[in-house]
Specification:
9% strand; single chain; Uracil-DNA Glycosylase, subunit E; alpha/beta
Length: 263
């Protein structure tokens, strides 16, 4: 039963995969118990993502999750915030005549993630990820018969096929609330999600998913006792240029070939 939830929050559960629904209902109860007024206040305010996409990350079936990628929060633009981390809804094409598309370059975290993937794939070197190097990569990507994906939707589909749950530490962005404050309010929910996931996965006799934590807010999940049960890969937030050269991320994502069409 979800009668304890404000109507807009309850309606947002409509996009959740059926395997998650009973778990999330209990997780939201834990959140309400910790902070009774928060969800009511949230429902009465302006927040991102819009269009009922608050729980969009949970459209991935529970038993398909092999990785939990945790970012900080939604992009601070209505067109960009989709309810899944790092996938900017304002981005269509990934490429332009000069390199990455303007929309990708505007989404700094997505841009650096793509450049990290290109370095991992050997298409770029860490020392040269701009200018002529990106021009050459883009030209190759857009050639007729190229195996490169062309749209952000293709990249998201490839990531999901690898078993990623694309989750933010804070499920909302509000222009009048510090992101770290909203993230703190979502901590009981996040902790409960991980507990339920661990119980369900171990109950099936499967290995727990890997937690991929990007940025300081995501790293706060390490304070939860349950996270000690999960394998982890931790990195700086991708809006840092240093992320492009992160060898651990290159090793994790390189073999996945996320920038290539799945045949």
């Amino acid at each position: 039963m979800t009668d304890f939830l404000p109507v807009p929050i309850r309606a947002a559960l409509d996009c959740v995969h059926a395997s998650w629904l009973p778990l999330l209902e209990r997780d939201l109860q834990a959140m309400v118990q910790a902070n009774p007024a928060y969800l009511s206040d949230l429902a009465a305010s302006d927040y991102l993502p819009t269009e009922g996409r608050l729980f969009a990350a949970f459209s991935q079936p529970l038993d398909a999750v092999r990785y939990v990628l945790v970012g900080e929060g939604p992009y601070p633009r209505a067109a960009s915030a989709t309810g899944v981390c790092f996938m900017d809804g304002a981005v269509g094409s990934l490429w332009s005549e000069k390199g990455l598309s303007k929309q990708v370059n505007r989404a700094t975290s997505l841009r650096n993630f793509m450049k990290m993937l290109l370095v991992a794939d050997g298409q770029l070197t860490v020392e040269n990820t701009t200018g002529d190097a990106m021009l050459g990569v883009a030209q190759q990507a857009q050639m007729q018969g190229s195996a490169a994906i062309q749209k952000l939707a293709d990249l998201q589909a490839n990531i999901v096929k690898q078993g990623f749950l694309l989750l933010n530490a804070s499920l909302v962005f509000r222009s009048n609330v510090a992101p770290v404050k909203d993230a703190k309010a979502w901590q009981p929910f996040m902790q409960a999600v991980l507990v339920r996931m661990a119980e369900a996965t171990e109950g099936r006799g499967q290995r727990l998913p890997m937690l991929v934590l990007w940025g300081k807010i995501a790293e706060k999940l390490n304070a939860y006792p349950v996270t000690a049960r999960f394998p982890k890969a931790v990195a700086e937030h991708p809006y840092n240029l240093s992320f492009i050269a992160n060898a651990d991320m290159q090793e994790l994502f390189g073999p996945m070939q996320l920038l290539k069409r799945v045949v």
